[in-house]
Amino acid sequence: MTSLSTDAPPSSRRRAAASLLGSALGPFLGLILVFGLFSVADTVRSNQMGKRANFCTFSTVQKILRDSSQVGVAALGMMIIIVAGGIDLSAGASMALAATVTAWYFRAGYSPAPALAAGLLTGCLTGFVNGVLVSALRVVPFIVTLGTMTVFLGVGMILSNDTPIRAYGKAPAWVLDLQSPVPTPAWLQFSTGVWVLLALSAVVGVLLYRTVFGRRVFALGSNEATARLCGINVTAVRIAVYTIAGFFVGVAGLFQFAMLSGEGDPKSGMGKELEMIAAVVIGGGSLSGGRGSVLGTLCGACLMSTIPIGCVMLSIPTARQKVIVGIIIIVAVTIDQLRQRRLAT
User: What are the start-end ranges of the H helices in the chain?
Assistant: First the structure.
């Protein structure tokens, strides 16, 4: 278990900080490698076609970070769940439901405050439901969240009458600009969503590595039985973990609403949960619980966004993009399992 205890000696905190940075080094190098490969491939292809290479440009970086902000903010919540030894397969459906609720409120004529609050509360509610069900039913989170994934998708389809809710012209420009590659004002350089992601990352870092609650989350993921013997209220911590993660899913839902230019589609989150999980695992998180890295998760989210953008620029069909992403997920999980076996020996 890696945590930065506030009452640990300075030398221990420095070693823990070095360990956290080290766990993010691999994902960062992987991101640089993938970006470099796409840059070389785009340059070669552009030279053959007599065109200018477009991948290794600032505008591409803006797009990658914009797309990463949506996956990344939800992946932060997923990381907290995975650190606690859980999983959430309903995160994609929850994100789409939050976007759909937001669109419904804007279409009904509500002002931004209640509309955005409704989206965030929807995310928190879905997380709370997951936490309560996992704790009360004592069924593995994989099965519980697989069921709630379908439930949340169905609720969104009922709310939208199985048709995307369009709130064009109802949402203010600053809401839609949350996911604009070119921000307003321009001096921000990157979309507002990127800065929101960085701010929330700092909050998660403090929450996990500098608070008692964070140490309890790591303890729960490392060994639930031991956590109970230490006096930790496992049920309360687990419900809190899923609810907090739901908040981040709600934020991702607002980003989804903005990315779709003011539309809420309950089916738009299908498959997104796999990207969130992959970002966490690629970033050094363990599906066995007890380990996770904020910096690594951010790098994993950027990697998951770099691949589709690079594939589009290289005119790689969408079907092959799915194959590439699937292979990366398999490789990431395999590496995690090999790492677990090595630690066990």
Answer: 10-49, 58-83, 91-107, 112-137, 141-159, 173-176, 192-209, 212-222, 224-229, 234-259, 272-282, 294-313, 318-344
* Helices and strands, number each (H, E), in the chain: 13, 2
CA distance 7 to 183: 41
DSSP state for residue 264 in the 8-state scheme? E
SS3 131: helix
Q: How many CB atoms lie within 10 A of CB 32?
A: 12
- The single-letter code of the amino acid at 209 is Y
Kindly list the structural domains of the chain, giving each domain's residue range(s) and its CATH number in brackets, ordered by start.
55-344 (1.10.3470)
The region that residue 184 occupies, defined by phi over 0 for left and psi between -120 and 50 for alpha, beta otherwise, is: beta
Pairwise CA distance, residues 100 & 235, whole Å: 30
In sequence order, the 6+-apart residues with CB closer than 8 A to the CB of 122 are: 94, 97, 98, 101, 102, 250, 253
Specify the DSSP class assigned to residue 177.
Answer: G
pTM over 0.85: yes
pLDDT (tens, 9 = 90+) of the chain, 345 residues, equals 444 444 444 544 455 455 555 566 777 887 888 888 888 888 888 888 878 878 888 888 889 999 999 999 999 999 999 999 999 999 999 999 999 999 999 999 899 999 999 999 999 999 999 999 999 988 899 999 999 999 999 999 999 998 899 887 788 888 888 888 777 777 778 889 999 999 999 999 999 999 999 999 999 998 888 989 888 999 999 999 999 999 999 999 999 999 988 899 999 988 899 889 989 988 888 888 888 889 989 998 998 888 888 888 888 888 887 787 778 777 767 776 676 667 666
